Amino acid sequence: LLSAIDGRDAAIITDDEVRHLHAEPLAARLSQHGVNTTLTSFPPGEANKSWRTAAALLDWLASSRFRRRDVVIAVGGGVVTDTAGWIAASYMRGVPYVNVPTTLLAQVDAALGGKVAIDHPSAKNLIGAFYQPKAVISNVAYLRTLGLRQIRSGLAEAVKKGVIASPELFTLIEEGHADILDGSPRILEELVWTASVVKCELVGRDPYEEDLHRHLNFGHTVGHALETATGYGELLHGEAVALGMAVASLIAETRGLLAAHARERIVGLLRRVGLPTCLDELAVQTWPADVLAALGQIRKIRDGNLRFVLPLKIGKAVVVDDVTDAEIRSALLATAPTSSNRWR
Ligand SMILES: NC(=O)c1ccc[n+]([C@@H]2O[C@H](COP(=O)([O-])OP(=O)(O)OC[C@H]3O[C@@H](n4cnc5c(N)ncnc54)[C@H](O)[C@@H]3O)[C@@H](O)[C@H]2O)c1
Ligand SMILES: [Zn+2]
User: Fold this and answer.
1) Which residue(s) pair with 318 in the sheet?
2) Which ligand number lies closest to the CA of residue 85?
3) pLDDT for the residue 341
4) What is the pLDDT of residue 336?
5) 151 close to 191: Cβ distance less than 8 angstroms
6) Does residue 270 contact residue 249 with C-beta atoms inside 8 Å?
7) Does the Cβ of 109 fall within 6 Å of ligand 1?
8) What pLDDT does 149 receive?
9) Alpha-carbon distance 46 to 237, whole Å?
């Protein structure tokens, strides 16, 4: 981190929860090393990835002694790295920033790739930019204070990358999931590193998302619809994506694109990790009709096209735009419910 700061002043942006846990101790360490450090925080949660937060952060920078050559440091989960990244992209037409992600989801996904954004009441991530951080520094020791449900949610995004691009990453999670959930630093480091490499390779091929056929959206078509249908509240992003991956895998198998044993491996791993793979297991009661209605809205915004990433095998996927509502409904219903709802 010191070499990324390289003698400049540092403006740390974090949320109120991470502030006391990790950001203030980090600021103190930086000060001990002679770095001029200022720090601000905003209330945690997706609801605060907002214009209101962004305006307050811009006011804070404008009233500080922050210069164009200084560096913004985002310390927190994806909400913080997305928001602080957008502030860095906008302030003075762009100032350098470094991500120090503190959730597993941010370490394996959100902090990498340069997609930064805040939400607008009409849509998630509506106001944003492509703006790369100078460095991403993931310390798995930060994950010790993170709850198991958040760890599982982050794992969903790592499983996703294994399915679309890396059998090695998939096997790593398959063989190491118990140690990962136990918080073993060695396996967490291997997981974060491997997932980061896979994400950087995928983003490096298309940094500005010119190709609409993005495999990184595996699980996200139904996942986003679930988040919309449940009102961005109780459901964690990774939980919605996990069920989305289960649905897409079943559609792929039914179409004869994915072997039954490969689908069983995908769904089996999600289950073992403790992620929901059927509507019955979600933290919020949801009906297929609500999901289809939300998908209908997404279809409208996308000019009638609903893109689905369907796995062909572990490590390979394809994008199709002809999945019908009937296929989605029967896949949603067929993801066999289990008797217990572990989220309640
Ligand atoms: N830019 C991208 O490419 C990309 C990719 C995936 C997700 N995202 C975005 O990421 C966001 C979700 O990120 P998230 O899941 O990290 O959620 P988050 O940032 O809301 O963090 C989850 C909760 O954990 C707390 N927390 C963070 N670190 C902690 C720690 N070490 N110990 C204890 N508590 C801690 C936070 O205060 C928060 O309450 C969404 O807004 C999503 O859109 C962006
Ligand atoms: Zn995601």
Assistant:
1) 310
2) 1
3) 42
4) 54
5) no
6) no
7) yes
8) 97
9) 10
| Cα(54) to centroid(ligand 1), Å | 16
Distance 198 CA to ligand 2 centre (A): 14
Tokens for 270, please give them: 């999600």
Whether 214 lines ligand 1, by a CB cut-off of 6 Å, is no
Burial group, residue 303, by CB count within 10 angstroms (0-12, 13-18, 19+)? exposed
Residue of 79, 143, 196, 215 to test ligand 1 pocket, by largest number of atoms within 8 Å of CB: 79
* The ligand 1 atom nearest the CA atom of 153: 15
Max CA-CA distance within the chain? 62
Mean pLDDT by 10-residue block, N- to C-terminus, for the chain (344 residues)?
96 98 98 98 95 98 96 98 98 98 98 96 90 98 98 98 98 98 97 97 91 88 91 87 98 98 98 95 89 88 85 97 93 69 39
Distance 64 CA to ligand 2 centre (A): 34
299, 306 Cβ separation under 8 angstroms: yes
- Secondary structure class of 97 (helix, strand, coil): strand
Neighbours of 176 (CB within 10 A): 17
- From the list 42, 43, 37, the residue with the least C-alpha distance to 58 is 42
Q: Three-state SS for 135?
A: strand
Place of tokens 């918080």: 183
Alpha-carbon dihedral 295, 52, 238, 1, rounded to 10 degrees: 140
List helix spans (H) across the chain. Answer: 2-5, 16-18, 24-32, 51-62, 78-90, 104-105, 148-165, 167-182, 185-205, 220-229, 237-254, 260-273, 288-301, 325-334
DSSP letters for 151-196 = HHHHHHHHHHHHHHH-HHHHHHHHHHHHHHHHT-HHHHHHHHHHHH
**Ligand 1 centroid, distance to 235 Cα (angstroms):** 13
CA angle in degrees (0–180, nearest 5) for 334-335-336 = 85
